[in-house]
Amino acid sequence: VRSSDIWCHAKRLGIPCTNSSIENGTWEMANEIYRLFRETPVRNQGVFVMGGCEDGVVSFGKTVEEAGMILFHWLALAFQY
């Protein structure tokens, strides 16, 4: 999705972020996302931001509904800033 609120406050919220120098849709991006799963709490948070794609936010869950609720959770936290 696109969310400037989540994206702009990702660092404050502790949301993992991909390296901004890596292009979307590349093998390097796939490896970068794999790195997030190895080195950050992304698996538990269910969300990360695309560093090189302004406002780009990815959420995931067992269902579409769960992924949506995760987005609402982080959006509510972002609105506090």
SSE topology:
Elements: H1 4-8, H2 10-13, H3 27-39, H4 42-45, E1 47-49, E2 57-59, H5 64-79
Antiparallel strand pairs: 1-2
Account of the 3D structure:
- The chain is mainly α and 81 residues long.
- The protein has five helices and two strands, in the order ααααββα.
- The chain has helices spanning 4-8, 10-13, 27-39, 42-45, 64-79; strands at 47-49, 57-59.
- A two-stranded antiparallel sheet has the order 1-2.
Q: How many beta-strand runs?
A: 2
* Main β sheet profile: 2 strands, antiparallel
Uncertain stretches of 5 or more adjacent residues: none
Number of helices: 5
Radius of gyration: 12 Å
Helix content: 40-55%
Please state the average pLDDT score: 96
Percent range for β-strand residues: 5-15%
Strand order of the largest sheet: 1-2
Distance between the termini: 20 Å
How would you summarize what this structure contains?
The chain has 81 residues and is mainly alpha-helical. It contains five helices and two strands, in the order H-H-H-H-E-E-H.
List keywords for this structure.
two-stranded antiparallel sheet; mainly alpha; 5 helices; 81 residues
